[in-house]
Amino acid sequence: MSEALKLTDLSKSFAVGKRLFGPPKAMVHAVQPLDLTVTTGETLGIVGESGCGKSTLAKMLVGLLPPTTGQIEIEGAVLDNADPARFGKRIQYVFQDPISSLNPRKTIRQIMEVPLRRLHHMDKATRAARIREIFAAVNLREEFLDRYPHEFSGGQAQRIGIARALAAQARILILDEPVSALDVSVQAQVLNLLADLKEAFGLTYLFISHDLAVVEAVSDRIAVLYFGAIVEVGSAREIFANARHPYTALLAASAPEVGRPIVAPETAATELPDPLSPPLGCAFNERCGFATDRCRAEKPALTTDETGRAFACFNPLATTR
Amino acid sequence: MTGYILKRLVSAIPVLLGISVIVFLIMAMIPGDPATAILGSYATPENVEKLNRDLGLDQGLVPRYFIWLGHMVQGDFGRSFALNRPVLDEVLDRFGATLILAGTSFVLCSLLGVAAGVVSAARQYGWADKAITFVVLVGISIPSFFLGMMMILIFAVQLRWFPVSGMWPIYGDRTLWVLLDHLFMPALALAVVATGVIARLARSAMLEVLRQDFIRTARAKGVREGRVIWRHALRAAMVSIIPVLGIQAGFVLSGAVYIEMVFQWPGVGRMLVDAILKRDILLVQGGVVFIAACYVMFNIMVDVAQAMLDPRIKT
Amino acid sequence: MRGFLTLLARNRLALVGLIVIGCVALLALITPLLPLANPNVIDTPNRFQPPFSAGAVLGTDHLGRDLLSRLLWGTRLSLAMGLAAAMIAATIGSAIGIIAGYYGGRTDNVIMRGVDMLMGFPYILLALAIVAALGPGLMNALIAVAAVNVPFFARNIRGITVGIAHKEFVDAARLSGMRNRDIILSEVLPNVLPVIVIAMSTTVGWMILETAGLSFLGLGSQPPQADLGSMLGEARSALITHPHTSIVPGAMILVIVMGINLLGDGVRDALDPRLKSGALSRPMPATTVDRHGPVPTARTDSLLDIVGLRTEFRVRDRVYKAVGGVDLHVEQGECLGIIGESGSGKSVTALSVMGLVASPPGVITGGAVHFDGTDLIGAPYEVLRALRGRRVAYIFQDPLATLHPLYKVGDQLIEAIQTHDPLSKEAARIRAIDLLKSVRIPNAESRIDSYPYEMSGGMRQRVGIAMALANDPDVIIADEPTTALDVTVQAQILSVLSDLRRERGLAIIFITHDFGVVGQLCDRVAVMYAGQIVEEGPTEAVLRNPHHPYTSRLIDCVPTLGGGQRKLAAIPGLPPVVDRLPVGCAFAERCDKADPTCRADAIALMPTGAGRKTRCLFPETKQERIV
Fold it and tell me: Does B217 sit within 8 Å of C405, measured CB to CB?
């Protein structure tokens, strides 16, 4: 089992209140230093609510944002300067909003040709053949190639987005909320297509979403992000059913489910901490029913237990088994 | 709010410096010997030499700038050779007249423009909207100097309602009423273009805002339509209208140059044009810097108004 | 291009502008070929000839020169000057704007500070300074006008570029291996170009006015050469004695600039995608009603009884039947869920009740909404307004967009209260604080003075709920109130709603696309597809044992937590577009059970069990579900 993606000490901070000269007024740590490995052929789900840093993380992984610290290793190669063109052959990105990820003034063929020409320097005939091949793989008709993006529905546009990512021949795809802009009946089509493609091309996925049920359905392993840090990592089958971190448990309890009575799972603070003045200890302590003085003073580190589950909590929930 | 005003005032300093640099550089483009250009071709050699010494004209561009700036900060804008008096005195004498004209026009165009825009948007495609749209179109298409000339022809010469030109009668008392009588036509002619621009912008800003969700919320609450338009929608639309009012103030000030020519209004605009034609460089330079500085201050007031309207702007 | 011309031609005013400008431009082009007198030959004995005199159709000026000839030559010069200035300013300004907007950061900061400084001058000061330095003259005036307008273009185009540079397709191009230069040229520029054209077409007229203005002041074209501005300037001294010498060039400027402005507006309307769809029109205070035929009477004595409701959107020549005959009723204290995908008509149904569908383009074309004995469709606006918020209140989806950004939440609540209840401001404020407490906002006394932007999404939505509760309504219509929120916040909001409903005996119509939410909150559920209700019944029965194939397939599509990694069921195809609905069942095309009878005729909503109705010829049976 080789490592498709290895992140070491990766973090990103943004300056707030930039000035023309001199240092900025404050720094916001969108992603706190984190280590993560994704095995080849695996689907790693990344779950978190808005503001947890999941999109920032994704953008760093494809070189669209330079990391503040740490390094990214893709298939053994260290990519330390943010250069999407160098990343592009190894790792690709599927965007959340399928329509706005396609240039409205280009035909689909023009859009599809760019990675083939720029990243792989193919000649015209080879490009045409390759596009035909990819379109067949994502179940799109070839006549679509000469149309413009606005002529497509969300589901079709997302297939085109996936096709473009495939054209770069990267073996790792970052899927950033790929179905959250789609209707449920179409969402399932795209998710199933992704599963088929993974098998056919031997891909590795990083599947980012806020929808627990979707992530659970597609992932092998899941990492839960809260306030820019990983709070728990575990197998998809186990992590929600048997959460160790109170935040994971809160997420699982909050997901609306037929037949379960509504309970407000929180009592005290209900909001995310202010990123400009982050809490001292565990970022979750103000919302946590189990928080102790230690939680308020010290940041828990991500530790792995004997079952392979990793969590960052001083007072983890008991395993039900 | 005080903090915000102070912050804006401090941030005006680099803008003012920048403006002085731009004016200085433009004036440095004057071909030939600057002293001769400033004093005119009939200047005596002694005068040329004295000026060269005073302004450091024999030195490089950078020291010259700082000498000039130093003089200006002390209130010395130089001496107009054509009028043979200090530039600042002349500018200050003339500025009041321009302020009266442009200020009246600005108030007029802001009120009329915003009101016309709101009515136009509220009655979109109705007869009021169509009428306003047409008037506005004519307004933004007519040169203000031509409009002024036609007004003189019709209202002063034909109908004899208003005096033909000037700010004060040659004989007689200088009362407010007399001033208003003289002010009416030029102020109106000057306001027309800006009114058109503001009305158009106000209309589209209102249309934009009226489609927003919070307008639907207000209606869903049962708020009366008049209140929806004049309170909910206009308040939100003002956020995009106010910056344009600031820009339009600059246009009114600019248009004042033409109107002062047409109506023989004794303001800075006419002074500047005369100075250019007489190649009275220091008067132009001083006048431009002075007015630009006033305009910068005015724009700070606009920003402050904006900040008072929109709490999202950090105070 | 063709579409552009069609759109332009559709706009009659723009067409007039195009014709006027076409004629003027043609005249200007052929001026040298016309048998005109030399415009600069002085003939003082014949000065100030009136129009229509022999040999001078428009008369002569103060030096006896032929006015018609001078007018045409002057027009030629003015047009050329205006166009040249516009081209120069647009090219330089756009280039600066694109570079600043695309690269951002320090580049942007430095460039835009410079631009701001240039805009710190009233434009004519800068122009005057430039002319003062370079000396009066045509070219110098041209340079001055162009230079003065560069900052306007730069700022305008920069704004647009910033928006485009942050679009996802630019990121995608980067990941496809494109470099900055290529991205600017092939991704950014094509998207900015329409805006440049719009900005140019709306400023050419202005530039002609400005160059004419400088000439008028004697700073532009120098004698004997004349553009329209200098003609006017020279004629000024004879304004009172010989007005025609002023009126001729002045009227020409007016005609040209007006023509250009009309055309420019047409170009803008044709190129702006938002205007293209006819979207920029203001919604009326209440949805337009265009109802034919008899008004259906109430079927039940329910609190709210919607009968045969039809709402459509009329965009140009297309009609989108968003709601095609919906029957629904809500009882006192009941929670009815309406579930459907986007475009199913669920929100439009809800908004139609109180006439809040944006109109234009929305029109209610049929049906009735009986509320407490009154038919709300077609009710006078004042009746509707009195009921809005008082008896029927709404909660909308995105709490940031639905609250007024510039008023404190307290003031918005107080307004909601005072609209229907003549309370004093103090009394209303006390009630507002109580309302905030009832939706469990901590520190209500201080939160009441917050602005919406100072609150989190969940808190804002609580304010939205408090506002709906302000006048103790009978029915609350909640249009996807939790869709924009995170799950943990959604759970809180649902719990607030659920408790309030029980405490106050509220009837709720809850619109959502989430089966889980419906299952937790609603007593009854109606499933909508393509503008119609396809199934209705008690929530638990419908979710456990759906009768309509659509409901059944849709439930299968949605993954539920705890199922582990798996393949999901999918519905093939796409929902139909509501401007081309099929004759029979709208779902037939995606349904594996459909046969020709499904497509033959409209299908009625038929009773299928206790309190249940289904619009299907072949309802699902229990056995099928289990398999």
Answer: no
